[in-house]
Amino acid sequence: MSSTSYNQSVNDDSIQSYPMEESKKDKALMQDDLGHAEIARPVDVVDGDRVDDSKVVDAVWGTIDEGGPNYRSLGWMRASILMMKTQIGLGVLGLPAVLDVLGYVPGVIVILVIATIITWSDLVVGYFKLNHPEVYTAADAAYIMWGPIGRETIGFAYWLLVVAIAGATFLSISVAFNTITEHAACTVVWAVIGAVIVAAFASIQTLGRISWLGWVGLVSICASVITLMIAAGLTDRPSLAPPGAFEIITQVAASPTFVDAINAVNIVVFAYAGTPNFYNIVGEMRQPKHYTKSVIAAQIGVTTLYLIVGCVVYHFVGQYIASPALGSAGFTVKKVCYGLALPGLIVGGLLYAHIAAKYMFVRVLRKSRHLSKNTPIHYMVWFGIIIFTCGIGFIIAEAIPFFGDLLSLIGALLGTLICIQLEAYMWMWDNWRSPNRGTTKWKLLMAMNVILFIIGWFLMVAGTYGAVVTINNSFKSGSVGSAFSCADNSGN
């Protein structure tokens, strides 16, 4: 391995400065944490950050000024909300089923362990970005470590993961529309409508401009799961309970088969698989030094909500959990829950579609003046990539049209690689020649990352096997619909 330490300082030769300008307000020539110089300017505070309205030279976007979109406008609080929304969505709807498979204690332990592992991965993204300002995606990090082959391999996996998650939201949107309208149209039609709505909002160019939608999506999903929890506690009969007498069974510790257990773990990995978005988020923050604060706040909020929703719904519904979970508390409540969740599902889809499109956009126009300028080529490339991205997501959603198995496959095959193994190796690569090498702290952190790297590969191989077996069995048994089917997928 070759590396630079996280404690390294930025090379002064890489800093571009600009003349001081006079102002009645406080002025200072400020250098941010990425080694980018920012022109002296009047100081204002927005979203907890000091705001600079003047020219910025960025290692990814080049010169950012008033002549184009500001790709460095995201404050730490809005960044935290976007982090939460990229995770709270489809994943939380599968967690009650995880507890049903594993039982209370193993299920909670798995959620906490995966949360800890992914939080470390998210922090490593920020550390690596500070040392390598040119990084904007996982593919950029792979290029630094492994060259062009690494960039293309990891870049494709990164892009496919984000697009697949966007596609999963199209599937959930079609379920929502079918539930609300009682299957008033072909399921494929609803998926197309969902893809078009997502594409329209995802085409907004910067994360700063769409960050307010993160609040909308977060409130929407939280309102729907809170309604579900209340309804589950009040209902006398879960929607999937059989006619006549029935008994709700919950277990402290269950005894699942290996395939069932690893699929449950896959869904938890999927629920935390927002790490690909964190590269873009730190890359568009005004002050990346606040990134760690954003991550910690987001992960505490996400994990708390996951545990509450999973445990409460499982307690009241037991083995009669629908997939997605919003359909667990009865037909009328299901319609209400999906109505509340629909904006959140759309926002989740648009964030992932936006991130996937932004990856391709930067790859195509990097080092071109069209990247950060409002030129015709800038717009044609951007909107063309948005349409292409949403089209691929739609195909994925319709090819594997069953919610739980799709989440499991995405989490195992792509989520572990991009959210666990890659970041563990990034830390090892960047710290292999650290001045702190040989110290107790360095040895412990190196050992931890080696262990995480191995755990990630195990989850990837075993999880993909479990997901494929389950999908194959589902198709053989005829218990799921076929690809591109008009059949109702709401379970009504």
TrEMBL record:
Primary localization: membrane
Compartments reported by the entry: Membrane
Key word Phosphoprotein present: no
Membrane-topology annotation of the record: Multi-pass membrane protein
Comp. bias regions, Polar residues: 1-17
Pfam family, one: Aa_trans
Amino acid transporter transmembrane domain boundaries: 74-468
GO molecular function: L-amino acid transmembrane transporter activity
InterPro entries: AA_transpt_TM
Keywords of this entry: Membrane, Transmembrane, Transmembrane helix
Transmembrane residue ranges: 88-120, 156-177, 184-204, 210-234, 295-317, 337-357, 377-400, 406-429, 450-471
Region (Disordered): 1-25
Cellular component terms (Gene Ontology): membrane
Family from the record: Belongs to the amino acid/polyamine transporter 2 family.
Protein name: Amino acid transporter transmembrane domain-containing protein
Organism for this UniProt entry: Kwoniella heveanensis BCC8398
